[in-house]
Amino acid sequence: MTSITSSSYAVHFNKNAYTLLNEHLSKANYSKIFILVDENTHNCCLAPFMSEIHGDYNFEVIEIEAGEINKNIATCTQVWEVLSELDADRKSLMINVGGGVVTDLGGFVASTFKRGIDFINVPTTLLAMVDASVGGKTGVDLGSLKNQVGVINQPEMVLVVSSFLRTLEKRQMQSGFAEMLKHGLIKDKNYWNELKALDSLEAIDQLIYHSVTIKNEVVLQDPTEQNIRKILNYGHTLGHAVESYYLDHPTYDLLLHGEAIAIGMILEGYISHKLTGLPKEELADIKATFLSNYPKVSFNTEDIEAILKLLKFDKKNSHGNINFVLLNAIGTPEIDVKVAQELLEESFAYYKD
């Protein structure tokens, strides 16, 4: 597969990714190379990744605990301290081998340690391959509030190696699939139709490539999310609130990112139908597609009230307004739409019916 070039880096695929990584390492003369993993990628991905690196380099492996619950400043502090203890300097490199938690947190740690060291992302989940590791967003959660602290900073390169997907359970694959479906909804109706007709996620390389291409095209137009890049947040305003609520709830099981965003896309689809003209049949298509791929979640009145209160923390907000990305039609988004409280509540009623 041909590499996808962004503003200051490229996304490389499969065997070519390792070839270009080795070329980069041979030329860059890094003082030390730190590889950030969590316990899952340490066990399943680190050995095959290291076996593809040729050359005599000074490697150190740093392991963090897996899961969104550990994507916080406390974990960053631990990694910063390890980097300092192991004599990392400004000519060091961090390679983040993992899902979105590892690439988001590792990118943020690298971007801030000694005011910034180089980093490379090696996403090992479908979600990270098509979303988290591409576009330069780095950061961590503040308590249960998603991605409240971070910076936009580009990696040296992103390496997408689809063989890592063999290590994932079906639920994790489905989580990433939600973001791919989103790419169809915001940019490409034909892609949406292709994805919803899939029988399985086995032959997925070309689909990953298409999703990365869509995201890259959007990011190139608006690297710092001043306008058009906001379309990538379709489903995320309510979806992130749902995800945060479940992350912090003492008795509910956690929802994966894609599971929460799938709910958000149904809710914001309903709002789109009411406010921006999304046709009724396309709304029904969106709801049916997500409910056929993701288990339905039951919300009571107390849950809904608490979720809606979390909207004030959404990153797209400005001047006290909660700004939504909605759809005029599948493939045609609209940004910065304000939504009345009653309509937000109605959207949950639509989801539940």
TrEMBL record:
It holds the Pfam family DHQS_C. Residues 62-174 form the 3-dehydroquinate synthase N-terminal domain. One of its GO terms (cellular component) is cytoplasm. SUPFAM superfamilies: Dehydroquinate synthase-like. Its EC number is 4.2.3.4. Its cofactor is Zn(2+); NAD(+); Co(2+). GO terms for molecular function: 3-dehydroquinate synthase activity; metal ion binding; nucleotide binding. PANTHER family: 3-DEHYDROQUINATE SYNTHASE. Catalyzes the conversion of 3-deoxy-D-arabino-heptulosonate 7-phosphate (DAHP) to dehydroquinate (DHQ). This is 3-dehydroquinate synthase.
